[in-house]
UniProtKB/TrEMBL annotation:
Keywords: Coiled coil, Membrane, Transmembrane, Transmembrane helix
Membrane topology, from the record: Single-pass membrane protein
Organism name: Bordetella petrii (strain ATCC BAA-461 / DSM 12804 / CCUG 43448 / CIP 107267 / Se-1111R)
One GO cellular component, as annotated: membrane
Predominant location: membrane
GO molecular function, one term: transmembrane transporter activity
Name of protein: HlyD family secretion protein
Location relative to the cell: Membrane
Residue span(s) of domain Multidrug resistance protein MdtA-like barrel-sandwich hybrid: 49-189
Domain Multidrug resistance protein MdtA-like alpha-helical hairpin: 89-154
Family listed: Belongs to the membrane fusion protein (MFP) (TC 8.A.1) family.
Lyase in keyword set: no
Length: 301
């Protein structure tokens, strides 16, 4: 029989080898998990942001909302110079009436002179016809101005184009709004999604439709979602176009130092727990369940 000391030594060696093998297996498992498992801590909550501007310029008469307020599609946000725009509409209507009367008179004269073609000089007929054509053009222009004035009055009330939340808003009554110049940002509540940036080594285990779990920083409850799509391209920061030859000037890289590129993956949000707050820009961790079937690569986009 093996003496106790020798048996103890063999046991220690065996235990050490077992721990070494277990440690190596654990390290390999962790390496494989972080390298190939479809999960990332580099995620951001995104949403469509509408830069809202007035369609007409003018003094702001009313402001009916405040910063960070939730609004519905069609809600009036603020009103621009309704009195002036109403006066513009009245003037446009008067201009149409005047142009219509002038057109009727010019057409009567043209018709009368054409009836006297045998006794009137051709030059006079041309003058009357030109006058009638000019009057018609002026009438059509007045109609167009009336339509524009009517639209401007309708757009005096600036309404929300989406269901959303107002942010970065500081407009006050009496301020002058310039057409086309944004005065607030409106975050579309129906457009929230998560942009997860996954290493390219993980894409082979991911596909459209795969369920995903989303963990927001600071939230104890997780959100449910699914993979909606993959970015078709990312910027190559080392690709610099030469102005002389139009050839790419690519910086040299070493084959033993290659970093995996991060590819944006769009994650649709399917379920938000009660009380969880979606804020564009929040940090998120995304874990994709790769145990379910997915669409082939060719159908990802």
């Amino acid at each position: 029989m093996i003496p106790w000391e020798q048996s103890s030594r063999v046991l220690k060696i065996a235990l050490t080898l077992a721990l070494a093998v277990l440690g190596a297996f654990t390290l390999w498992h962790l390496y494989a998990y972080y390298t190939y498992s479809p999960q990332t801590r580099d995620g951001k909550v995104r949403a469509d942001v509408v830069a809202l501007a007035a369609d007409v310029s003018g003094r702001v008469d009313e402001v009916r909302v405040r910063d960070n307020q939730v609004v519905k599609h069609g809600d009036v946000l603020f009103v621009i110079d309704r009195v002036r725009l109403a006066n513009d509409l009245a003037e446009a209507k008067a201009s149409v009436a005047t142009a219509k009367a002038q057109l009727a008179a010019a057409e009567r004269e043209d018709k009368r002179y054409r009836g006297l073609a045998d006794v009137v000089a051709p030059q006079e007929l041309d003058v009357r016809r030109t006058a009638a054509e000019t009057a018609r053009a002026q009438y059509e222009q007045a109609i167009a101005s009336l339509d524009r004035a009517r639209i401007n009055l309708e757009r005096a009330e600036v309404r929300s184009p989406v269901n959303g939340i107002i942010t970065n808003f500081s407009l006050l009554p009496g301020a002058y709004a310039i057409a086309g110049q944004p005065v607030m940002a409106l975050v579309d509540q129906d457009s929230f999604y998560v942009a997860g940036y996954f290493e390219e080594t993980k894409l082979s285990r991911m596909g459209v439709g795969m369920p995903a779990t989303i963990h927001l920083m600071g939230e104890s409850r997780s959100l449910k979602g699914h993979v909606e799509g993959f970015a078709a391209g990312i910027e190559d920061r080392e690709r610099v176009t030469s102005t002389g030859t139009l050839l790419a000037n690519v910086n040299p890289t070493f084959s033993w130092v290659r970093l995996a590129q991060r590819i944006p993956v769009r994650i649709a949000i399917d379920e938000v727990p009660k009380g969880a707050t979606l804020i564009a820009g929040r940090t998120a961790t995304v874990v994709v369940d790769d145990s379910v079937p997915f669409l082939p690569t060719a159908e990802r986009h």
